[in-house]
Design brief:
about 170 residues, Rossmann fold, binds 5-O-phosphono-beta-D-ribofuranose
């Protein structure tokens, strides 16, 4: 098995439905990754070891998701020189505590905090980072952006041809 470049970690497997959005992006781009459950509160030593060893194992970026009192992303960032992307996991019975836990990091410990449940963009941001040193991946990413662009033009064409009422009814 190839060495994973991205570590997707989460506080509980109950986060997997959200965090799988990052894994799906990495699958689409053919990037090797690993998915782990590591809890800042329930397995703090394992979290420290994972973060401390991540760079040496060949990981380039860590995507960390947690809900509630989400300490996993920030504490992982404290223990690794790698870029860490936080995904605050938001449930209907949560307030915005996971977002606030990640977004207010102290100066000196950067953590790229994405919107609540923003795992897809976390995967894309990891692709952007890897693309800096991987020309083949950069070409794939350019194609992805071009496809996004083209699909908006196509939608706009249909909307203007058919009128907004028919367009809305067709959705
Ligand atoms: C957090 O508590 C986890 O990241 C999860 O979002 C939340 C609930 O965890 P479980 O009780 O479902 O394991 O640490």
């Amino acid at each position: 098995m190839a060495t994973p470049l991205i570590g997707i970690i989460m506080g509980s497997d109950s986060d997997l439905d959200i965090m799988s959005g990052a894994a799906a992006v990495l699958d689409d781009f053919g990037v090797e990754y690993e998915v782990r459950v590591i809890s800042a509160h329930r397995t703090p030593e394992e979290m420290m070891t994972y973060a401390a060893e991540a760079k040496g194992r060949g990981l380039k970026v860590i995507i960390a998701g947690a809900g509630g009192s989400a300490h996993l992303p920030g504490m992982t960032a404290s223990h690794t020189p790698l870029p860490v992307i936080a995904v605050p996991v938001k449930r209907d019975n949560h307030d915005h505590e996971a977002l606030w836990s990640s977004i207010k990091m102290p100066p000196g410990i950067p953590l790229a905090t994405l919107p609540e449940n923003g795992a897809k963009n976390a995967g894309l941001m990891a692709i952007e980072i890897l693309s800096l040193l991987d020309e083949q991946l950069a070409v794939k990413y350019d194609q992805y952006k071009q496809n996004l662009h083209d699909s908006v033009l196509e939608t706009d064409k249909k909307l203007t041809e058919n009128g907004w009422k028919a367009h809305l009814a067709s959705k």
